[in-house]
Every structure is written in C-alpha cells, then in structure tokens.
Amino acid sequence: MLGTEDASAPSPAAHRLPHTRHMISGSAPTAYQRLRESLSAQPRVWLVTGAAGFIGSSLVADLLSLGQQVVALDNFSTGYQHNLDDVVTPEHAHRFRLIRGDIRDLATCRTACAGVDFVLHQAALGSVPRSVQDPITSHDVNVSGFLNVFMAACDAKVQRVVFASSSSVYGDANQLPQREENVGNVLSPYAATKKTNEVYAAVVQRTYGLPSIGLRYFNVFGARQDPNGAYAAVIPRWVDRLLTGEPCEVYGDGETSRDFCYVANVVQANLLAATTSDPAATGQVYNIAFGQQTSLKRLFTMLRDGLAEKDPSIAGAELTHGPARVGDIRHSLADISKARRMLGYEPTHDIAHGLNEALEWYWGRKGRFELKEKVRAVML
Ligand code: NAD
Fold it and tell me: Which residue of 21, 117, 119, 337 is surrounded by the most CB atoms within 10 Å?
C-alpha cells in the first residue's frame, strides 16, 4: 500500500500555487484556472474509483499536484500498480491512501466513501467488444458496482459524485454533432451499462438527494493508456505496433471517425463538474471531447508521422484493413457547448497538441523499457 491510512493530515504542499501551464499570459483567468487556485488554497478529500487505470491515474496525478487528499479504490482488474507508482511521488504519499477492493462489494464502497467530499467514479469495465463477449460481468461491474458507489456516497453524505459515462450512449443516433438530448438506440451491452448509469444517477439524485454529474467521454487518449490486450484502445495499440514494427490494422475502410479527447481535458471536466456551485448543473450529463472529427486513416498518419520524427524507420508504415466490428459507431463528433456554458469547460488540447504530449510519453517509456532490457541482458 502506498501512503498512510491517515489521510487527514493537511500537507505542507497544500498551499502551493497551482501549476502555471494552464495560464495564458495576459488573458483573463478561465473558470478552471480560478478553480485550481481555490482548490490549492483550500484542499479537499477526493475518492477516485478506478484510480489505477488510465483516466483515474491522471486524475490522481492532478489532484495530488494541487495539494488535495486522495483516496484511491481499485481492484486492479484492468489497472496497474505502475500507473500509481508513476503519479504518487514520495512527496505526495502522505496525502494518498490506496484501497485495494472491488466496487461490487458494498462494504468496500462504504469504507472508501467515509470522510470524502467528492467522488470521481471511473471504475468500470471498458470496451464494447469485451461487453459483447461477456455482458454479465460488464453489467455486474458497471451497473451493480456503480449503484454500490452511489448508495455508499449517499450514506457518507458525499457532496457530489462525478461519473464516467460514454459517447457510446448515442448508439445509432446519426445526427452530427452529437448533442446531449439526441440519443439513439444503444448498440452494445457496454453502452447499455453507461445509459443505465445515467438513469440511476438521476434517480438517486431525485430520490435520495445526492447531486451528481455524468460526463460522456469521447475517445480519450494520453499517458498510461494501456496498449496491451485484446481490448486496447486504438491510439495506444497503434503506437505500440508502430514502435515495435508490427502492422497496424483498422477495422473497416478507415473512414470511421472519432472526436479524440486528450486526457487533460477530461481531468479539467471532472474538477469543474465536482465543484460547480450552480445547482442546475447537477443531475445532468455533458459531452466531454474537443469537438473535432478525425478519421482513423488521418489518425494513423498523425501517429506515424509523429513517431517518424523520432525514428525515421517508422515513416514507411502502412495500415492494413480488417472487417468492421459489431457494435461500433460509424462517426462521432461532440457538441461541447453545454459543458462550456454550464461548467465553464474550455478544452486546452486539440488532437495534435494532445498527441504531441502522448507520443513524448510513449517514446520516453520505450527508452526506459529498452534500457531495462539491456541491463537485464548484461546481468544474465
Ligand atoms: P481503465 O481500464 O484504464 O480504468 C478502469 C479502472 O477501473 C482500472 O484501474 C480497473 O482496474 C478499475 N476497475 C475495474 N473494475 C473494477 C471493480 N470491479 N472494482 C474496482 N475497480 C475496478 O479505463 P479508462 O480508460 O481509464 O476508463 C475510465 C472510465 O472512463 C470507465 O468508466 C470507462 O468506461 C470510461 N470511458 C473511457 C473512455 C476512454 O476513451 N478511455 C471513453 C468513454 C468512457
């Protein structure tokens, strides 16, 4: 376990100034910049479920950098200890508490929610194909586990729960850009679980008075997203294959498009949603994306050309084509005006800017991996 069980001691780092990379010199501070300053000045206690995962670990990193106290809950089914080791530095460890446990267990959720101000609920089994393979487990974790977290949060009198919904709830609605009120028929068990989450969150708010906000993430990418396994997302999977010289396969003709969203934008949305003082903003769902459509073919070119700047041998890589997948949505593009208007959300990274940062991270990790392998070879 990292850190200590006593998450109550205020940190000397708690009153540090917030990171300045979000400041644009000379311009008025955004709602997010003001929020970061106020959180730094007055730290709170946050529960991040799914904290060892890709998005959860990015939330932990940012909250700790803002001097917050963080309780992390994860069962490590798709998350990793090394994601937490990456973000919980010794300097932060005394403000961090890890609970290894499963959201399918109500008692664990109660322990995790005790004394918490805000819950950022990220724990779920992602991936449309995984849910098609095993809908029962996806339902148990994503719906029963979700309700456990919400009921435990109610009982612990948590101020607000922000939860990860998904663009998959738009299903076969083909009107672009996608607006929150125009959902279609869901196309997979995964999408059904996320739609059910939205229904339950609204019911829990109405019935028990727990305010919550759902964030419909559109394809998120960034550091620590897992490239391994059958259910890996397209960006880490292709980056990994380009770096190892293996072919990249696209399902279908490559004209399928997505609104790729860098993880820093998702972190921003979570913090804004947790703390907005407008009661009308709760009990709602919001699209969280950049608002820019990129085809998979174009994405591949961006990844290949970005990596070829670091390793020219990658420049010749080409896409191969496989059959289209069951349950996949053809195009997605978010209308993010509701999050802008109600939450003050202003995404800081478009796909190009996000990929620059993400590719740096994957490249640095490749270097570390190669060094480890060399050291191992010398020692053997
Ligand atoms: P991830 O798999 O990296 O993280 C999920 C984390 O939840 C993992 O650490 C996993 O171990 C944990 N977890 C799973 N089941 C658990 C359980 N029963 N109890 C406790 N912990 C459990 O996935 P991610 O990409 O970081 O996704 C985070 C959330 O965002 C999920 O709810 C996902 O559905 C949603 N989402 C992600 C994207 C995306 O593009 N990454 C898009 C839309 C929605």
Answer: 119
Q: Which of helix, strand or coil describes residue 38?
A: helix
Bond from prior residue into 177 cis (ω within 30 degrees of 0) = yes
| Percent of the chain surpassing pLDDT 70 | 89
Nearest CA to ligand 1 atom 15: 124
Residue closest via CA to ligand 1's atom 44 equals: 166
Q: Report phi then psi at 208, rounded to 5.
A: -115, -5
pLDDT averaged over the chain? Answer: 90
Asked whether the predicted pLDDT for residue 163 surpasses 80, the reply is yes
Measured in degrees and rounded to the nearest 5, phi and psi for residue 209 equal: 80, 20
**List of domains in the chain:** 30-297+319-379 (3.40.50.720)
CA of 50 to the centre of ligand 1 (A): 6
Query: Residue 138: which of 194, 184, 183 has the closest Cα?
Result: 194
One-letter identity of residue 279: P
Give the model's pLDDT for residue 28: 83
Q: Which residue has the tokens 């609104």?
A: 259
Reply yes or no on whether the pLDDT at 16 is more than 50.
no
Phi, psi of 90 (to 5 degrees): -55, -30
> Are the beta carbons of 276 and 343 closer than 8 angstroms?
yes
**Sequence-separated (6 or more) residues with CB below 8 Å from residue 143:** 193, 196, 197, 200
Using CA positions, which residue lies closest to atom 33 of ligand 1? Answer: 126
User: Looking at residue 303, what is its pLDDT?
Assistant: 98
Alpha helices (H) in the chain, listed in sequence order: 31-41, 54-65, 81-87, 106-113, 128-133, 135-139, 146-155, 189-208, 234-244, 263-275, 296-308, 337-343, 351-379
CA of 102, closest atom in ligand 1 = 19
